[in-house]
Amino acid sequence: MLDISKLERRWLKYKIKKILPYxxxxxxxxxxxxxxxxxxxxxxxxxxxxxxxxxxxxxxxPNTENDEGAMVLEPSMHFIxxxxxxxxPITNTPTSSTKPAPTPKHSIAPIASLPTPxxxxxxxxxxxxxxxxxxxKLTSIKRDDTAFDIHEIEDRFKDTSxxxxxxxxxxxxxxxGNYSEAYNYALKTNSINNSIDDSWLIFAKxxxxxxxxxxxxxxxxxxxxxxxxxxxKNYLDTLDKGGSK
Amino acid sequence: xxxxxxxxxxxxxxxxxxxxxxxQIDSVSHMYQSLxxxxxxxxxxxxxYGRPGTGKSMLLHKLHHDLSKHQKVCMIDIPIIDExxxxxxLAHKIYSYAxxxxxxxxxxxxxxxxxxxxxxxxxxxDEAQLYSPSLMEKIRLISDARALKFVIALHKTDNEDILxxxxxxxxxxxxxxxxxxxxxxxxxxxxxKLLKANCFDVASMINDKNIKLINKxxxxxxxxxxxxxxxxxxxxxxxxxNNPRKIKYNALATKFIEMAAIxxxxxxx
Lengths: 245, 269
Ligand SMILES: Nc1ncnc2c1ncn2[C@@H]1O[C@H](COP(=O)(O)OP(=O)(O)OP(=O)(O)O)[C@@H](O)[C@H]1O
Ligand SMILES: [Mg+2]
Description:
The complex is a heterodimer. By secondary structure, chain A is mainly alpha-helical. Helix content of chain A is 53%, strand content 1%. Chain B folds into two domains: 7-16 and 182-264; 26-178, P-loop containing nucleotide triphosphate hydrolases (Rossmann fold, 3-Layer(aba) Sandwich). The mean pLDDT of chain B is 88.
């Protein structure tokens, strides 16, 4: 059998060994980062301020200038420029192919009002023609990246109405950026079993991704009042604080 | 223990070759289809090769399982190194010919013409790197005479290029190379295995980051992945029983994966 405590000790040793070089590197860099400017400023203390140019860091070779042969590091001021012009905001819009679901009128939209499931990428990849074997030659058949056949599982979900499958599929779609699909499956799952945290969370998260944050909050509140779910509360909290992940 | 969520997943990843547990992976099933087609072509000999743990034995067993519904197939998974034994075992298995003495090749070929099968019987040889060149030559002659059709599986190792060996250089060989799983294939492999056994909860715990780590540790080798998953779920079974608070159900813990890798020797610590 497994000797867990021994294994945990070995793991800890492994972790420390793995992290050690990085920690050393980081500490040296930080120490250098603190000491170099200090040393430099001491040397230049009697001189005028180093002019700040809008160039990238320039390292002047020693002895080429009439200086004392010290390296002069000139900070780049580019970042200030970039602060002036507002950079494009990071948006959390759903990626590509997903059609946003229409705003549900009631707290929970009926399945029918949602767009029909968009066929997943899985199918197109799966129908790739098999690679033929060339006679008399060495055919090294490369494994191409295969799409996971979610349809098979979707069919089984249809047949069995097993809510665990539903959660699985909803998660799968959510992870693949098909938020309306995720929404659909979470909704179906909730209607089969309305006390699965994960399903409600995916449901709410999908709503957020589809730009229906208010709807998501309402749903979560409703669910929390019925279930007292801690996970749902936590997620609602993050939403209230403005985080959307 | 009986109610453990991880007990069933653990047992799924035991390193055994059973065609019933065959998981369909796209590229492998392409290969499998071509294998099935090649098997129907007369004269060709089929060489299935790849690194250890890439699923050669599994594919061979699957082929055996599927073909034996329609025709005479004989699987020799433990190599018979002795040349006399080899012919005698084949004669017995295929032509039901029992003999205590050694069989000559000529006698063997006579037997094959006497017993008339509607389709040429297929012999599947696993671990064929262990057969001697002279036995391989005999195998080739039997195949040439259209008495039997051979599919042989052998390892490819780093220090020896078996394909360069003389007897595989001839045009009669049709070669199929099995490779390690890619990230996507490993994901499919693990997920399908779990889903087939209705382990949905555990299946949905596994995220892309987990697969990435597993793939990094096992380099997509199916056998190593099985071993890793087996000890990983053994760890989970233990923690579930002894320290359940350490288990997070939203994803597989990196720490546990690494611990399992240490246990299986994939990480040296
Ligand atoms: N398609 C598959 N479906 C299910 N299990 C698989 C599949 N491919 C490989 N495996 C599993 O991976 C493990 C290793 O496979 P296998 O024994 O066939 O490798 P191998 O190539 O024959 O290795 P070796 O060269 O060492 O004999 C086995 O436990 C097998 O069950
Ligand atoms: Mg094998």
